[in-house]
Amino acid sequence: MELFRLFTIDEARRILENRRSKGFSVIQVMLTGVGDGTETNLTGQMPWINNDHSNPNERYFENVDSIIRIGQENGLIFALGIFHQLQTSRITMDNCPEIL
Q1: Within 13 Å, how many C-alpha atoms sit on residue 54's CB side?
Q2: In the 8-state DSSP scheme, what is residue 96?
Q3: If we measure between CA atoms, which residue out of 76, 60, 58, 62 comes closest to residue 19?
Q4: Domain limits at 27?
Q5: By percentage, how much of the chain surpasses pLDDT 70?
Q6: In which residue ranges of the chain is pLDDT below 70?
Q7: N or C: which terminus of the chain carries fewer CB neighbours within 10 A?
């Protein structure tokens, strides 16, 4: 699910409340969405500043934090996928040792 990239806060709230009402307790979501990690969220924010994986974009992650808080308010647990498999050619030990 691309909850952090493709939905507004209000839409994410409705999605999470809907999942809770259906008995779900865990939400699996990709932190940077599906694909190579170069897509913006709805407010035009990239996850990484200058596409540098060791330099997170606070504005992108403020949105992530807001949605996770909504999930917590609804008693949900997030299973976060940090990187999509399509990003493995771009994220290596050589170009991002601080986070690996």
Answers
A1: 9
A2: -
A3: 76
A4: 9-87
A5: 82
A6: 83-93, 95-100
A7: C
